[in-house]
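Case study 2.
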Amino acid sequence: MSNTKFIHEQVYENLPEPLKGLTNLFEGRERDIVLLSCLGVLSGCIPKVYGIYDRKKVYANLYVMIIAPPASGKGTMNYGKSLINAIQTKAFAEKQTINEKDSKRKKKVETYIQTKLIPVNISTSEMYALLKNSHYGGIMFDSEADTLSSMFKNDWGNFSDVLRKTFHHESLSISRKMEELFVQIDEPKLSLVLSGTPNQLQPLVQSKENGLFSRFLYYSFHEVNSWKNPFASRENVSVNFEKIGIDVILKMYEILFKKTYEIEFSFSEEQTEVFNSELERISEIILKHHPEGFMSNVMRHGLILFRIAMVLSVIRKYSISQEFPEDTLVCQNDDFTIAASITSDLLYHALNIFNDISGSELNEQEENLLFSLKEIFIRKEAIEKGLKFGIPERTMDEKLKQWRKKKVIRKIKHGKYKRILG
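Prediction:
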């Protein structure tokens, strides 16, 4: 995994409050992780707000995954979870059962309480039950992916199917004759915020064949933190997040779910034109210079961009007026720009992971390019040859890195390579 991009500084300068203030408490990778964690959990906290995307009704729910080695600072994502503690406490207090005890048959029936947070280490049938009982959609949050990896091994096929369908709010149903259980969920809503090492999350990132891989917003890096003074500040940062969770997020959440109508989010006409133009440009680059299998990521990153913009717009609207008096919400230009920047940067992260898990596969264009070079060649020759294939210099440099990782070329010395494949 090569060094990956940081989220652009302009994103942080233009974030709505309270996200701007919270992310200012951090820097570098930790700041990026906190922002993405917050966006992930907040995507599950804006009930009754939807948009129409590709002629379908969609809600804001995001799947966020942070992949990094141990001791890299990814544990800071837990601060984001603190934003929803107050909502979880409220939802937990309002007990609700899936089934009631049948007094005539005197059969003991398992009951579930209404919840916002859904634990990771559960069976698929429990997942259905808790998702059905979730308070305007559930949130799965796990910063140590060992439990998740175990779940993948034990019940991976079924769990993968649930995640794929829920991403698009497709109806779910499960029937278990032995348990006399039938659960149906219309428009399921689930937000995911996960992190782990590449090895822990291998079953998930290897799911590119069945489509689950392309549903995630990835943030990956390989740097390990150096030692830092744990006593440099006496501030308990969690308190900031807890306070915002109570004073802002819970109040906003209650205003939204108590509404008697839903609010439709949309882009302006100008934003729609920019959106289509940018995604078309990215699609052409991917089709021309990268594996075709990655196109599903590009397509779904359009929806992810739309959802990030939805989250930001709701947060900004509430921070300004503390109310939602209308049944429509048009995206602010700042929020559109932020969402587009984050999505563009993190699409690069997804491509990096995609290439890492694709082994030594080369597409037809890459093979033609590679074998058009001499067995031993220098960077300048590769750049010149790449331009003839319509590949920009920066993209060609990235290909040289990928080819080294795929072990189809070997670096002899600075700027000089030897072809190994063939």
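The chain has a mean pLDDT of 86.
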